[in-house]
């Protein structure tokens, strides 16, 4: 089942349950997926492209969450946290920090990286392996630790 099919099914269920907040998030995700397909000039997206859209939506919410926390807007913090939970439900299971660390170590060996100068090369090789399964900030921090 594609992400769009799953979103349509969940949207119908949210309508039946009169869950307005969940329905709003599902509609937003559905629009983001459809807009990406239009932008790419395709009828449907691949799994990787769907993961890219979901990851982008998660990142936007995390950024907003941080901004609202800094501004002391607890009402909006709670709303964004709920949205984030709904969006995360569509992502694949997230890798643990140890699993990410293992992938980073293997990648460093594969690309023969040995210094901080190789940071870009390592990140470029690691991110496709953990796409949608790990937060980019966590990956960046682990790569920096491993290269220093």
Protein described:
It is a single chain. With 148 residues, the chain is mostly helical. Helix content is 77%, strand content 0%. It is built from 7 helices and no strands. The chain has helices at 3-17, 20-40, 47-71, 74-88, 97-110, 119-130, 136-147. Helix 5 (97-110) crosses helix 7 (136-147). The longest helix has 25 residues, at 47-71. It is globular and about 55 Å long.
Keywords, separated by commas or semicolons:
mainly alpha, 77% helix, globular, 148 residues
Briefly, what is this?
By secondary structure, the protein is an all-alpha fold.
Number of strands: 0
- SSE topology string: HHHHHHH
How many helical stretches?
7
Mean pLDDT across the residues is: 89
N- to C-terminal separation? 43 Å
Instruction: Indicate the structural class.
Output: mainly alpha
Helix content: over 70%
Biggest sheet character: none
Shape call: globular
Low-confidence segments, given as residue ranges, are: none
- Radius of gyration equals 18 Å
Strand content: under 5%
